[in-house]
Amino acid sequence: MTSFNPRFAGRFFASSVLALLIATPALAADPEPAKTTAPDEQKTTDDGTLAEVIVTAQKRPESLQKTPIAISVLSAEDLKNRHVQSLVDLQDGAIPSLRVAPFYSRNSALIMNIRGIGVLADSNQPARDQGVGVYIDGVYLGRAQGLGTALYDIESIEVLKGPQGTLFGRNTEGGAVSIVTKKPTGEFGLSATAGIGNFGAHKIEAHLNLPEWQNFSVKLDGIVTKRGGLVDNPLPGQSDFNGFDRHGGHVEVLWKPQDGVSADYAFDTSYDASTPLYLQTITAGTLTRAPALPLQPDRVRTASVGVPQQDSIGKTHGHRLTLGLDLAPGLQLKSITAYRELDQSQYDNGGQNSTTYKPNGAFSRYSLAGFTQNQFSQEIQLIGDTPRLKYVAGAMAYREHSEDNAQAFNTMVWNADGTAATVATYNIATVPFDRASRITTRSIGAFGQATWTPAILDDRLHLTGGARYTRDMKHGELFIVNGATPNVDGVTGPRRLNAAWSRVDPLLTLAYDVTGDVHVYGKWSEGYKSGGANSRSLRYAPFNPETLSMFEIGAKTEFLDHRARLNLSAYTGAYKSIQIDFQANYLQVDAQGNLLQTNRTTIETANAPGTGRAKGFEAELTFAPMTGLTLGASYSYNDLTIPATVNPFPQGASGVVVTTPIKIYPVYTPAHAASGSIDYDRPMGDYTLVAHLDGNYDSGFYANYNDPAPGVSQPKGDPGFVVNGRLGITDIALNGTGATLSVAAWARNLLNEQHMFYKGLNTLTGVSGFFNEPRTYGLEATVKF
Asked: Which of 160, 491, 714, 761 falls 20 to 30 Å from 238 in CA-CA distance?
């Protein structure tokens, strides 16, 4: 991995420190995220009313009900009840508008979609970006790789829906996922959790707060979580499919030398080993299948053929320094400086059941991909509050260097009649790279947003305007294609990318407080996903940014004496210059029936002409009918249309361009999705009984965005309904120790429902895809001091 530029880092770090030191501090509150639920992390207060939810979507703590943005929040309690250990576990649909899925079969890289916007392409490569920004404590995570690592002590996950280009910037056209961790308390506290589950699962987690000393507060977090594979690999000594082994640590130091001044440093490191999902074929294609490869219409426990398979290993670490300074009452200066590194290997041999067959022929494509990345970011914010004007202004700089490579080869050989197979002779060290690329991305931006409450209409009207200017620069090269230096149109040499784009993202919002508990708003905002180049291609031709301009109306209401909360939003938007990937060649057979394909996946990217349309509706209801009982329900309707697009790249052996437009499907976008939950807690003398149940439905979605061949339609994934549950006893006093014990039983996919969420059609090999995970369950015990 190429190390980061120390001059670049030093320049922006010094600027932020200098800006803080030369200002005069004043007495005001420290800039810390507020709790998202009641102090005991329950959804209701002591009198049975709904607890206020605080969000930081506009760079300051505010009530969810008074923030004119469609936002869903998962609290620490929500995550525990659903047994969410990483972002991978949100793929069951806890937030209907948010879709989380592995990149193809790999949990080592995640696809993130909000309202259908986020990815219509392969973002598992250096010069491609996703359209949903993921942040942790204000730091942007630049790659899809590394998002599946274990979550530490999380305060909340805020999902901001719709373009967030003004305050969050590039690559947030679909929205943003903002993860907020728990801060040091300055008081001694220890929480330790141990758990076991089926499929050999176990978990150990600890969080330690140390007493404040000399104005320093320290918090330490550690986690180890592991689960065996969900599908057995029959080949002895090889990893099973869809297992994981994650561990990591986190340390945070908060220094408050005086009121209004704070420095918050955090370091985290993580290790994430995972194996791919198992690809099952459910209907046959035109090619003859080997007898050892039966069709598998139901989710299986054991793979049909054992293959070489090892863990994909991701290692990440990062530093963050957040400085806060109150310049005057109601005026705060904030700096966020961060540096992160990522090293991810990806080994994928999960598709042997969807493969070609030839007597004594090789099969079972092993895809190996290496990815390294480092990033430095610096953001400065000036946050002001006056009786009639709230504003935030700032600037940001981001630098990222990434490299990738890929190999693909067959690992197995059939016998003469296809009834058995043996491991092929190969040496990974001598297998040539199919592709390799490197890219350096630089982005700078300046932003401002202000909300004015004029002295009319009893201060009920709020006008917000804002904009961000961004300049993106990408410089890179594709230096290996098919094991050699690229040769395109008779020119031999690396294919270079040297492109830059400038962009202004505006926002206008009109909000009105109908009553103290009813707030309505209308908002127009824009966002974009950066341009780039495709490292799977032959040409490495640049493509331009895609943009989304969206108008949204919404209402946030509370009623029944604050025991019911209903939030509604409806939106429509214009989706332009959509980045579409195209296979360079459709799969074909020659006159003798031999398959014309290689192990290398060749993809080219172009911007679709015309304008697509995104529209939909969302509703969230929370109701506390009685003390200790909370009911929740949410629903989303998403309708995304994308213009039919001509594949501009040559097709088939003839090398001609097919001029017929291809239908483009919205991927990872169910038209209908819903989630419901029941939470109950009841004191029982010396302990408290707690129970949780949630159900999550989606109507199915496409996982591939164009048809496999002219005149052949892409299949759609199955509808799914997944139920999760948790039952526990908390606050059991451990006599004489001052500690409490909590024990709980949990289950994910409690009803063991099965559906194939990902389906793809290859006319030669048939329909294949990935099933959702089977029922998992376990026991946990937590001791708190």
From this structure: 761
